Protein 1
Amino acid sequence: MQGNHFAVQRFLTFLRDKKTDAQTFRWASDNLSRLLCGEALSKLPHEQVEIVTPVGAAEGQRLLTEIMVVPIYRAGQSLVHAFLEVVPDAAVGSLLIQRDERTAQPELFYKKLVYPLPACAIILDPMLATAGSAVMAVRVLREEGYRPQSIYFVGVVAAEEGFNRLAEHIPEANITVAAVDPLLNDKKYIVPGLGDYGDRYFGT
Ligand code: PRP
Ligand code: URA
């Protein structure tokens, strides 16, 4: 996402501000998720259709693919609701991948996908830092037979390093984020970023 859309910037500003309370953080996250979802869906195969309104003929758009959203728990859960509001028949898989707090290396604890596998898989995770977690999720999906072109990623903030790393595994055009930040600190947190998304969204 270009990130220059005012509404995106507005919600992102609430998310970044360390003074934002938990309730406002969740509100901004839920609203931004809807915008990100709209942007991501526009990248999926779709076609123009002719429909008839109560007063005449019109053109519309229809998705041409079935979708499985795959949140990376825990923070990825925050993006699921927005997708289900817009695509209520989307399948929901789950991957529990956690970064080790000391080494920042990801570990896969749990995997539950939906069979038969829908044609497109959209990985959901608000933070793309080193991209270790996202690349692990891509690997799981590749093992299930997904081609890189059918795997999408939706997040809120990426570090440039993680964005570039993920783009080595799936097409760059399949990655939707609201912002790409320049740095990772020594704990592999995104700078300026917004801190720990899961902690702030879930109030831990
Ligand atoms: C965070 C975040 C991503 C990951 C990003 O999750 O939600 O999953 O770190 O970092 P990476 O790109 O370097 O892999 P974390 O493992 O801290 O768990 P949480 O969702 O419970 O906060
Ligand atoms: N996870 C987060 O929640 N924030 C970061 O900056 C990096 C990983």
Protein 2
Amino acid sequence: MGFKLPELQYSYNALEPWIDATTMEIHHSKHHNAYVTNLNKALEGNPAAEWTIEKLMTEISKYPAPVRNNGGGHYNHSLFWKIMGPQKGSPNGVVADAITAKWGSFDKFKEAFSTAAVSRFGSGWAWLIKKDGALEICSTPNQDNPLMDIAEVKGTPLLALDVWEHAYYLKYQNKRPDYIAAWWNTINWDVVNSLWK
Ligand code: MN
């Protein structure tokens, strides 16, 4: 029982050449798997072990650090895998339309989001969220996310970008901006649009 590592809906090499197969395999089968294992350990005997991960995020302030770190890790990575895929295609649909309406062009949005991702000091995530019906860019440290009740900026995540070094170091070493530039090619806009609620 408890939380489970979700299967990827594509193979480890499906995001090549943007994200290499070795990085994907280690990231999913080792890093994400460890978050799930440690979350289940931290919640042993706790009713929250049977909740959805989203519900746990909204009450995370009531739990100790291992639940926050590993629970966040589980939610963040589950979403990260979901919004990527081998499908090629330019931004389209309700989210792309809302992006263009807010930032003027997709390129301007890309620039703002990339800046948030590049400038996140140390480990963390960059996010596009829907907050009170409007889009917003934010970033979080470590494995925090905008669903958490302790988050500085709260909202529903539509895009999630992992900027921990384990997400890119094998292929891109210290060049986080190159990894971010490549990542735009991996987004599955059908899934992103399905998150708009
Ligand atoms: Mn990661």
